[in-house]
């Protein structure tokens, strides 16, 4: 049997969704503010969440974000490979339960997905798309090193309304440059100091 991919970060285990996660998934995905920002309908029942786990959430490279200290899945993240994308490009997707907003957990998970995408899967670039009013998601993309690329207007969401969507990108080169800049001993230009002559 093929071994499941499991990715460890300081506070999280990313692993495939399991049907036994349906109750936790329902608890967090039934919150209207979560679905609305991302443009998808709230989960209406535990059974519906179980169905999502069997279908949408069983896609390759889609992970439950399990909090190490409780063992509970509290959000979802993944790399999506859509038709029309170059085979060596993917799009990152993510959401997390409202009680866990603002703890930097999504940036932590996205960093791990970028490492997997570039170092293990050999991707050339990863996209991140978010509706223009989604300031929280924009901050995630900025903190993870994505750069604004273009805006698509009038995109129909799964809720049936239309919104404008910013699309940002991180290339393998950008990712490597960030790694170099954050390596121990790296000196950023703005940190450089002039030494006295004597
Ligand atoms: C967008 C989202 C994934 C961010 O995840 P996160 O783990 O909270 O990310 P961060 O902790 O880095 O916070 C990101 C920003 O959210 C905002 N924020 C933080 N805590 C917040 C709170 N309790 N309430 C509202 N906004 C908050 C801040 O602007 C923060 O940016 P900052 O670090 O510059 O202050 C999360 O808010 C979410 O799941 N939202 C609903 C679904 C969604 O929009 N998914 C993305 C679709 S593209």
Layout of strands and helices, then pairs:
Blueprint: E1 7-8, E2 12-15, H1 22-29, H2 32-38, H3 46-54, E3 62-67, E4 73-80, E5 89-96, H4 105-120, E6 125-131, H5 135-143, E7 147-156, E8 162-171, H6 172-182
Parallel strand pairs: 5-6
Antiparallel strand pairs: 1-2, 2-3, 3-4, 4-5, 6-8, 7-8
The chain binds coenzyme A (COA).
CATH architecture term: 3-Layer(aba) Sandwich
Adjacency order of strands in the biggest sheet: 1-2-3-4-5-6-8-7
Content-based structural category: alpha+beta
Q: How much of the sequence is in beta strands? A: 25-35%
The domain tally reads: 1
What is the overall shape? globular
How big is the Rg? 18 Å
CATH class: Alpha Beta
* Largest beta-sheet characterization: 8 strands, mixed
Q: Write out the CATH superfamily name.
A: Gcn5-related N-acetyltransferase (GNAT)
Please report the number of helical segments.
6
The average pLDDT value, as a whole number, equals 93
CATH topology: Aminopeptidase
Detail the poorly predicted runs: none
How far the N terminus sits from the C terminus, by CA atoms, comes to 67 Å
Q: How many DSSP-defined strands? A: 8
Bound molecules: coenzyme A
| Helix/strand order | EEHHHEEEHEHEEH
- Level of helix content? 25-40%
Short description:
This protein is α+β, with helices and mostly antiparallel strands and 198 residues long. The protein has helices spanning 22-29, 32-38, 46-54, 105-120, 135-143, 172-182; strands at 7-8, 12-15, 62-67, 73-80, 89-96, 125-131, 147-156, 162-171.
């Amino acid at each position: 049997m093929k071994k499941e991919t499991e990715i460890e970060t300081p506070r999280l285990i990313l692993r495939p969704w399991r049907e036994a996660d349906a109750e936790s998934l329902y608890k967090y995905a039934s919150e209207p503010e979560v679905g609305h920002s991302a443009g998808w309908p709230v989960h209406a029942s535990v059974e519906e969440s179980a169905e999502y786990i069997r279908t949408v959430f069983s896609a390759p490279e889609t992970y439950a974000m399990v909090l190490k200290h409780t063992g509970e899945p509290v959000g979802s993240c993944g790399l999506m490979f859509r038709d029309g994308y170059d085979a060596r490009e993917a799009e990152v997707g993510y959401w997390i339960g409202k009680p866990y907003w603002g703890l930097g957990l999504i940036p932590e998970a996205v960093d791990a997905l970028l490492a997997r995408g570039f170092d293990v899967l050999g991707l050339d670039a990863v996209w991140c798309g978010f509706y223009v009013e989604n300031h929280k998601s924009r901050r995630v993309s900025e903190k993870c090193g994505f750069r604004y690329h273009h805006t698509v207007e009038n995109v129909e969401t799964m809720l049936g309304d239309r919104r404008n969507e910013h699309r940002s990108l991180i290339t393998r080169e950008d990712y490597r440059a960030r790694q170099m800049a954050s390596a121990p001993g790296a000196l950023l230009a703005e940190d450089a100091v002039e030494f006295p002559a004597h």
